[in-house]
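Bug report

Summary: structure tokens for Contactin-2-like differ between web form and batch submission.
Environment: batch mode, default settings.
Steps: 1) Submit the sequence below via batch. 2) Compare with the web form result.

Sequence submitted:
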Amino acid sequence: MVINPRALVLFTELETVDLPCKASGEPQPTYIWKKDKRDFNVAGSDDLISTVENEGTLVFKQPKKKDAGTYQCFANNSYGVAMSGIVELRLAFLQPYTNQEPETITVSPGSCLVLPCNKPISYPEAKFTWLLKYSDGD
């Protein structure tokens, strides 16, 4: 039996992220990770990526954009191989709004009004809310 990570894991830079992988078996399984379908050498990476002792959980202490990709865990012992599902590790971000001067729009009562919104780029796609501010004196 292999404990699988979620299919999509979002991260922000500098926030620790775990990709769980743990299998039961006798003899105790060893673990191999693949990133983007290629062998991923945890020992060859910097000290910010490690595995949990006696299991295959992959820990990113301060993930960076370059860590994004698809990952899969393989647990091996003398009786065979068990593999996790593929998990996508993806950077979550929200770019700032661009500064624009407010624009006055005048419409007649009963007319349609379209308010422009220069929404920032984000992943996952941000949800937006409009607020109405009445002018002073109204």
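Above is the batch result. After comparison, the two runs are identical; trailing whitespace caused the diff. The CA atoms of residues 97 and 120 lie 5 Å apart. Residues 2-92 form a domain with the Immunoglobulin-like fold (CATH 2.60.40.10).
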